[in-house]
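Suppose you are handed a protein chain with no further information: no name, no annotation, nothing but its sequence. What can you learn? This example shows the usual starting point.
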Amino acid sequence: MKKISGIVFTAVFALTGFCADCEQAKTGKITLAILGDSLTNCRYQDRLMRRMHEAGYTGYTPVGTHTGFSASDEKRPGEAAHDGFGGFTYGDFIRRFQFAEDELMNVQKDAEYEQMKRLGVAKVEKKDWRRVLLKSPLVRFNNGKKTVDVQAWLDRVNGGKAPDFILIQLGNNGICSMTGDIDGRVRNGELKDAEELLARLREKCPDAVYGFVSPFPGSEREEDFTRNYKGSITRDGARKSLGRFRELLRMWVEAKKDPKVRFIDLWDKVDPARDYENALHLNGRGAVHIGDALFDWLSAAVR
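A reasonable first move is to predict its three-dimensional structure. Written in structure tokens, the prediction is:
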């Protein structure tokens, strides 16, 4: 009997205890976690779940703190659980913490609200600020300090157990606006944070398979970028920086020579002319293409 254990992707998948026989593997439990950003808003994770269940993988179980929209704090039946959060980066998953009201002085609350206004969401009522400035599900406040607590996250989303696969779908935020020494900034920033995130996860999920997902190219339409970013980010600039990050991420993963850490290249799986709702966010058509590509990857991995 062959066992398959885990994968990371700016999301999370874990597979354990599956025999080599495909039919038996289909009926076993397969757990997958996604650590992602606002691209989860297009619901590619729902498409992946649907494809897995339709293919007979009845034990496929996505795990996470919420379903649906990246800022949601709810879990709804029939939707795939995940940990996608709008605006998140690798570093946010190991550092970002929104203090609860009983842990924060009023002056600090006001500072957080001012930050929210600077992010362009001043129209949100102050009582609803927490839905905008979200904290990482891996970070908690302990004895006056921020602490990365992967086990607490596992307790919350998967009964304390590591998922079989962990997909990490990150790298769009911050990268798309980079100019100048992109290689240096990525190696000293995003990839250092990715290394620490992976190390923290592996402390509690050593047997998981980690799948790092490539960035996507963005919309073909320059007017989408003009409308969304008012000239601060251009189509060609975003395409250049994201494309270079794609190659740097690939090289970083391949240099590890670790069968449990894999690069998932989805760059060419979307159509920049037809699959985008705006500059960087996929529409329903794009979600189908990404969900189908992830299905191909995951169903091959569990055989």
